[in-house]
Amino acid sequence: MNKSELVAKVAAEAGVTQADTNRVLDAIINTVGEALKAGDNVALVGFGTFQVTKKAARSGRNPSTGATIQIAARNAPVFKAGKTLKDKVN
What does the record give as the function of this protein (predicted)? Predict the structure, then answer.
């Protein structure tokens, strides 16, 4: 399911327009991104938790040349599914 399919399905289920649903979904994505950038976690009870994990610097290998390269440290977003979501899937 891509974003437009998700918007269409949520709009139909909620009984609102797809344009309104798209604006709300964009606002949610933007707000979660800003919260993670600020160092906060976003917990949606029953759905899951969005958080940031720190990835340490490491050395890697360029697959085309075989040369060793340094990969810089970075922050990576992580999603951990909640129990209700896990139960729905299984």
Answer: Histone-like DNA-binding protein which is capable of wrapping DNA to stabilize it, and thus to prevent its denaturation under extreme environmental conditions.
Structure tokens at 75: 């922050």
Q: Is 49 exposed, middle or buried (0-12, 13-18, 19+ CB in 10 A)?
A: middle
Q: Please tell me the distance from the alpha carbon of residue 90 to that of residue 85, in angstroms, as a whole number.
A: 9
Q: What average pLDDT does range 11-17 have in this prediction?
A: 96
CB 69 within 8 A of CB 62: yes
CATH 3.40.1190.10 is held by the domain 46-90: no
- Say which residues have a Cβ less than 8 Å from residue 75's Cβ, sequence separation at least 6: 52, 53, 54, 55
Q: What is the pTM of this model?
A: 0.81
